[in-house]
Each structure stands twice: as C-alpha cells, then as structure tokens.
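Why this split exists: single-chain examples teach little about how molecules sit against one another. For that reason, every record in the complexes split bundles all components of an assembly together and asks for one structure covering all of them. Below is a record exactly as it appears in the raw files.
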Amino acid sequence: MLKLKNVSKDWKEFKIENIELEVKKNEYFVILGPSGAGKTLLLETIAGIHIPDSGRIYMDGIDVTELPPERREIAYIPQNYALFPHMSVYDNIAYGLKIRKAGNIDETVRRLAEVLGIVHLLNRKPKTLSGGEQQRVAIARALAVQPKILLLDEPFSNLDVQIRSKLMEEIKRWRREFEFTAVHVTHNFEEAFCLADRIGIMLNGRIVQVGKPDNVFLKPKNEDIARFLGYENIFEGHADGSRVRIGGITLSSNVTTFGRIKVAIRPEDVIISKSDGEFEAKVESIESFGFASKVTLSINGLKLKALTTTSKIIEEKIREGDRVYVSLRGFNLL
Amino acid sequence: MRRYYVDYFLIFLGSFLIVYIVLPIAVILVLQIFDFSMLLKALQDERVLKALKNTLITSTATMLISLIFGVPLGYVLARKDFRGKSIIQGIVDVPIVIPHSVVGIMLLITFSSAIVDNYIGIIMAMLFVSASFTINSARDGFLAIDENLEHVARTLGASKLRTFFTISLPLALPSILSGAIMTFARAMSEVGSILIVAYYPKTAQILVMEYFENYGLRASRPIAVLLILISLTIFITMRWIVGRRRYA
C-alpha cells in the first residue's frame, strides 16, 4: 500500500535518512522513537508537506513523491489536532467532503459523529472542546474523506492517562468499523504495544528495526535499540560456547557463540530475593516511584538495575546495604 | 508599602502621554460646543462638505488598494523564505521614515504631471505613506496562524488557493482589517505629500490649513472638529467590530 524507498530529507534541525518502509493495507503501523528522532518530519514527508531530498514514495504502486498533499489521499492528524478554529465541529468534519462535492455530506458527518461519540458536539466550536473531544473530531474529520492512509502524530500525548487508554480501546473498535490503514508515530511503548500490528523503531532519523511488537521488544537488534527499549543493563561480555561471562559472573545461554559480545538485561527480568537466587548481591540504592521501585545492585562490582514492586521491598524488608540473592529471568545477546 | 510607591510613580509617569493625547482633543471639542453656530455654519458650507467627501473617497480607495496588493504581500512575507526577504521587509517600512513633504517631491519627480491636482495624485500620496500598516498587519495575521491548519486542509483535498480562501484568509481577517483601519486613518490624516502633489481637488485636511491661513483659528476649528469626529467614529467602530470578531 505505502512504500518508501531510500527516502531522505533534511529540514531545519530535523533529518530523516534512507528510510525504507512498507505498510500493508489495513495494517496499523506504529513508528516508535524518542523525541527528536525525525518522526514528525517522516509523517509530513509521507503526507506531501515536504518533498524528499532523495528517494521515492509509492502509494499502491504509483509514484507519489512529487504529488501535492491534496492528491495523495492521505489524511494527516498533527499532534495539536489542528482543528479549524473558525468552523463548528460539523463544518470541520464536512470540510473534505465539501471540497469533494460529495453527496450525502450530512449523512456521512452524522454517522461518523455517532460512531465516534461526538454527535452532541456538532454545533460547538473547537475551542470549547476538551483534549479528548478534539482528538475525536480530528479523527472524524480525517476519516470522513476515506483516506487510503491515516497518519497520526503522537495522537495521545496531550491527553491524560484515563482518556488515553479509553481512546486506544476505541481506536481498535473504529478500525473494525472503518477498516483504515494507519501510520502512527509515538514515543510511548504502551501505545505501540497496544495498537500496532507492526512496529518500526526510529532512532536518529533512521528506521533501525521493523517487526511485530513482541519480536521487536524481545529481540532488539543492537545496543542503541536495546537501550531505547528499556534494557538498562548492558554489559560487555565474553562468550565461550553456551557460557557467557560478564564481570565476575557467568550466565548460561541457550545459543552458542564465541568471542566478545554484549549482554542486555531488562530491569524487570532481574529478580531479587532475600532467601535464594543464582548470585549474591549488595543493595546499593533503592528508588521508589509509586507501585514500582528500582533497585541498584552490585554483584562483585557489576552494577545491575532491577525493577520490582514497592510492596515487595517493604514486605521483604530490603534496605540499602543489605545482601540479597539475584536471579535473571532472561537476557539478550547483542 | 514601598512597592506601592513605585507603582504610583510608574502610573504617574505613564499617564503623562495619555493626558497629553487626550487633552487637545477634549479642549477642541469642548470649545466647539460653546461655539456651536460655527459648526452648523461649516456643515452648510459647500466647500467643507465637498472637501470631506473628497477625503473619504480617497482614503477609502487607498485602503482598498492597500488590501488588494498588501494582503498577498503579507502572506508571502509570512509563509515564504527567500533570499532578500529582509530587504523586502525593510522596503515595506521605508515610508515610515521618509518625511512626507519629501514623499510628495519624489512622487512629483517620478510621475510628473500625471498626478498633479487629481484624485489619482491624492490616492498615490496616501498609499505611499499608509500601505505599510496593511502589509505588516496582514503579515502578522498570517504568521499567527498555525501552519498545521493549512497542511491539514491540503491533505483533506483543498488546493493551495482554496486553503488560502477557506482557512488562512478568514483566520487572518481580524488582523488584516485592523491594519486596514490604520491605513485608512493614516490616509485621512496625510497632509504633507498631498500639499505638494495635489492641492486640488481639495481634501478636508488641506481645507483646514487653508481656512486657518485665510480666516484664522476660529474658522478652521469646525472643520478640524468634523475631521476628528469622523476619524474617531470610524476608528472606534471598526476596532469594535474587529475586536468582536477576534473574540467571537
């Protein structure tokens, strides 16, 4: 459906480089990356707001690289929703339909408004709406023109947590209802995991890994991706067949490799216990934030971060300076 | 307590200019009320009425021309980046720094007899000194619009032109109109260059001078008062309309 071949664009302080991307029909594709990675620039380039410096963009096999936005059949929802402030909600949704001189404009607007739960807002001006309501209007306005692809730029970043999770559930429902293809850009793992059919990780203007959510999260291809995905423990190690040595400890691996390697361990895969475990460690510091706590451990000088529940810290009376046992639920070789 | 003294001091300093602006307007209006017969006489004076009409016609024409040419220029200045943009921006502001008598001389040298003593001459003189206001306000109006609005309109199928007329222009309109009011007001108050280029057909602001020189202060005062009343009425109503639109 959408295909980017080797697309590069340098614009102000942002940059995308050699983007290769393919999005299939009816797929929900999430581009996940930290802020400043060039995600918005990539979306705007797909939308036709920028013409790439090099590379080609294809829609259904047709080269659209030079086509203006209005001839691409791509709907774009910017991060701030960009509702037209001088028009009512109804006129916002009807905007694209009026341009197309579509029949049954009223019927289309009302049906969309009904599914998206904004019928009662149709006569209001955008300024009077809450963030979540504005988001719904923006989605309705985009879907009204039945675009081939919907581009969403950080659609939930301005919404509070409850509205966010509700909207995510609803997006799934709307997808079943309207069967659209979407490219969704975010820095939020939860969104990516919850919505994506496939994920593309974007770092420093490049798409560095593409795959199904589980696959990407569990098998980062390199250290940078691992770090971005929350593998806070990354160590240089040495493999000797099925045994891997890092610092003073030895791990057994189910893959056979030799030589210098890197080991990545997610904090949540580090299990602490007062009673038993594979390694003995000293608690260096404990940082609690709400229900979760992060514990910095030292195993013979090897600093390891563990993520655990605050209740466990309290129940097992784990304090700074204590000796504890540590076991690993898993690790990745990079 | 000390902070209040500072506040009072600032208020005292700040009020000076306000009083200075309001005082002469108040004085001339009050004096005219006590000399109401002269005002009525002026209102029946054929020459005064004709001159006022001339002023209004030429100022309105100036405002319209400044809109037709100034709005597109403002849009380009707001949205496009190009080499020499700062030079263009500078040129827009040049008329503000040139003495108005000099403007008259320059226009006369450039266009010679074509503009002497006709409406075109008056309008050209007015346009030269007042177009900057429309251009700059239009530019500021377009600059204040989130570019994403235009982008979204495009992806929804609107051409560039259609986006301009359905999104950019309506949103910039309050700012454009307030610039146009300034242009109108500035055009109405222009004397220096008109004096040189087109003494005739006689405009009200020229007539005030003429009456003053020929018949003295008391004769010129009613025309001055009429000009003030017209300017203020137009200025206040249009600002009110624009303000309502902006906060609607």
